[in-house]
Amino acid sequence: MELKFYNTLSRSLEEFKPLIPGTARMYTCGPTVYNFAHIGNFRAYTFEDILRRTLEYFGYTVTQVMNLTDVDDKTIRDSKAAGLPLDTFTKKYKEAFFDDIKTLKIESAEVYPAATGHIPEMIDLISKLMEKGFAYKASDGCIYFSIAKFEKYGQLARIDRDNQRDGVRISNDEYAKDAVGDFALWKAWDADDGDVAWESPWGKGRPGWHIECSAMSMKYLGDSFDIHTGGVDNMFPHHEDEIAQSEAVTGKKWVNYWLHCEHLMVGNTKMSKSLGNFYTLRDLLDKGWSGREIRWVLIGAHYRKKLNFTFEALKLARETLGKFDEFFKRLRNAKNEGDGASVQDAVNEAKTAFASSMADDLNISMALASLFDLMRNVNRIADENKLDAAGAQTVLAAFRDFDKVIGCFEVDSDKPEEEFPAEVVALAEARAAARKEKNWAESDRLRDEIAKAGYAIKDAPGNVWQLSKI
Ligand SMILES: [Zn+2]
Predict the structure, then answer these.
(1) Cα separation of 84 and 77, whole Å?
(2) DSSP conformation class of 243
(3) Please, what sign has the CA dihedral across residues 280, 284, 290, 294?
(4) From ligand 1's centre to the CA of 133, what distance in Å?
């Protein structure tokens, strides 16, 4: 089955043809480690995880590189505000990032290069750009890339070349399309940088953000590789500038497929701290939601559509995953004898539908629909008492296989029952009922009872609760 992806570069659906048969080399713009990553960031990282897992599902050996931006305008600004050395400040957020991706069952990339560990590679690239005449030193002491010298500038973001104003320079890492101009490759040290500086042939300074990704991707993936991903907000200027720098140095096409993930909205508006709808992963965990519930919501919409995040969606995720848990339990307990023939057609149908949906530009909605269909069909067969143990095992094996991509199912787990004694669950349910009636005294009494039994209870919107051991 051929895999098809929507390539931002051509604005069309294309068959995936890797440079080396059987392997997929991809680069992912990773986090800027100046804060805890928010759920909008994780929408992009879970999309990239689904892409990676799908490539593996179809037999590709994946080499994924995800950078950590640990020096840029924002990390310097906030480390200064915190009164900490840059590396001490970013270390905390690097560690938090790795904890978070584990919680969301995001598979590890093969390499996580940090920008501060690759300054010589960046200086080397800039030197080559200087030699080839694509870069120049300006009166402010910074090195800029001359977009007028690179004919294909604007190919990814589709920028009208007539709007490119020669000689306009931008030293910020981020800027809008209407400010298009020469961008900084190397920033000369100034007082705002404090003690963050490296020696270079052009004096003391630090790299611009864009050159970090060109240097680190080419170091680990070569001059040309298959896939580059990121959020749509990275398309310009970041990815456009990455292409310009890389292709100007090598003279070769840098990346064949560009995949961009759309924004995450919260309650149909843009997530922002001022609107009070800004959530890190940790905020949601603190509210009692689990990693797999959050993951289920984040992967649930097609990556090229805006995802509207709501607490209703989380509640639905809990209910849905609970249904799958029950279903797997039913399958594990199937005892009838037989040859499994009763479920074979349903399993085959689901496998074909699942694979063809994921191969079609990661059509997750269609893929999940095929899993719901399979659950419904098998439950019907079980209701008719036609499910035998062999058939149940076939279905369980199919779900283990689907979960290689989905990463949310607990096919073989009896955890909930083992973890929480029936009497504690009964207390939790009684407490939920008391809360529904706004009987707070009773609710508090039951919370204490639960605590005495050695468990903590957390509430989430919609009268949903979660137990954990104290
Ligand atoms: Zn990047």
Answers:
(1) 11
(2) H
(3) negative
(4) 23
Number of CB atoms found within 10 A of residue 32's CB: 23
The half-sphere exposure of 297 on its side-chain side, counting CA atoms within 13 A, is 26
Cα(426) to ligand 1 centroid in Å equals 50
Q: How far is the CA of 136 from the centre of ligand 1 (A)?
A: 22
217-256 pLDDT tens trace: 999 999 999 999 999 999 999 999 999 999 999 999 999 9
Q: How far is the CA of 214 from the centre of ligand 1 (A)?
A: 8
The DSSP letter of residue 106 is: P
Cα(210) to centroid(ligand 1), Å = 6
Report how far ligand 1's centroid is from the alpha carbon of 239 (Å).
Answer: 6
* Beta carbons of 379 and 362 less than 8 angstroms apart: no
Beta strands 182-188 and 205-207: pairing type?
antiparallel
Distance between Cα 29 and ligand 1 center (Å): 4
| Cα distance between residue 120 and residue 216, in whole Å | 11
pLDDT tens digit sequence for 53-93: 999 999 999 999 999 999 998 999 999 999 999 999 999 99
169 band by pLDDT with thresholds 50, 70 and 90: confident
**Band of residue 417 on the pLDDT scale cut at 50, 70, 90:** very low
Query: What is the phi/psi pair of residue 398, to 5°?
Result: -65, -40
Residue type, 180: V
Residues 6+ apart with CB under 8 A from 362: 5, 47, 50, 51, 54, 302, 303
Which residues neighbour 347 within 8 Å (Cβ) at sequence distance 6 or greater? 374, 394, 395, 398
Distance 281 CA to ligand 1 centre (A): 22
432 alpha carbon to ligand 1 midpoint, in Å?
46
How far away, in angstroms, is 212 Cα from ligand 1 center?
A: 7
Measured in angstroms, how far is the CA atom of residue 183 from the centroid of ligand 1? 15
How many angstroms does the Cα of residue 434 sit away from the middle of ligand 1?
51
Please report, as a single letter, which amino acid is at residue 61. Answer: T
Residue 237: asked if its preceding bond is cis (omega within 30°), the reply is: yes
Distance CA 391, CA 334 (A): 9
CA distance linking residue 434 with residue 281, whole number of Å: 29
- 221 Cα–ligand 1 center, Å: 14
Distance CA 265, CA 272 (A): 10
